[in-house]
Amino acid sequence: MTDATPTEKHIAQQHCHDAWCIGIDADGATHYWSQYFETIIVIEDGDADVFELADTPCDILADWRDHVATKRGWSDCRIGGSIIEDIQTAAEVLR
């Protein structure tokens, strides 16, 4: 017997074929990003909310990351900042 329940990834990819996971917020919702469609898909309890980036107050994916950090927080964020932010963070760790 196989489990026919679609995974979150399959649900997200039904909306945007190239969707990939960018993280899980503090409320347990999983966020997916489609670069091709510039769309965010948020899966929570098997339900998908789809947001075209142009229809949000966010201009770029990093803005979405910051928006979620402010509204819900991240328990697992898989997208970072700029290379400059990464270097600054590394420098602070080494101090």
Distinct helical segment count: 3
The residue-averaged pLDDT reads: 87
What is the straight-line distance between the termini? 55 Å
Extended strand count: 5
Helical coverage, percent range: 25-40%
Q: Indicate the overall shape.
A: globular
Number of discrete domains: 1
Q: Spell out the helices and strands N to C.
A: HEEEEHEH
The class by helix and strand makeup works out as: alpha+beta
Rg, Cα atoms, Å: 15 Å
- Tell me about the biggest sheet? 5 strands, antiparallel
Strand residue percentage = 25-35%
Low-confidence residue ranges: none
Structural overview:
With 95 residues, the chain is α+β, with helices and mostly antiparallel strands. The chain has three helices and five strands. It has one domain. Strands 4-3-2-1-5 form a five-stranded antiparallel sheet, with helices on both faces. Strand 2 and strand 3 form a beta hairpin. The model has no long low-confidence stretch (mean pLDDT 87).
